[in-house]
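User:
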Amino acid sequence: MSDAEVWALVAAERKLQVATLGPDGWPHLVTMFHTVLDGRLVFWTYAKSQKISNLDRDPRLTCLVEAGEEYAELRGVQIVGTARILRAREDIAVVGRAVVCRMLGLDPAAELDPAIAGEVARQAEKRVAVEVLPQRTASWDHRKLTGPRQRATP
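Assistant: Predicted structure:
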């Protein structure tokens, strides 16, 4: 996939698989809601979560976005990189608002309902934001396959 196709898929899909390294060296894998904000892949999470403990110790992570139901429709992006943990309340609130707007299908440029805005502000008090700093990506798009492989079964 081209860079434009990679980032279009990342921006279009709602769920992001995030793998960090646990204290015992085993992968810790979770699903997060995310967004692309000013060209940056970001998500927010509880400051005391296992993934943040892991990233504080070792900032390496791998992220996966995937789409498709049938074999011939499968496509995905794997992003390997490091995490930059944002702890400033203002940064957390900006990322949180963007993620919540995306989850609820709201226009991030529009004024939020006061109840939603209040909840984002309350949540920001106990959360951090994470920016993924990509080092390399791998992508695939089975819709581009031709010939017998397109009809293959998993």
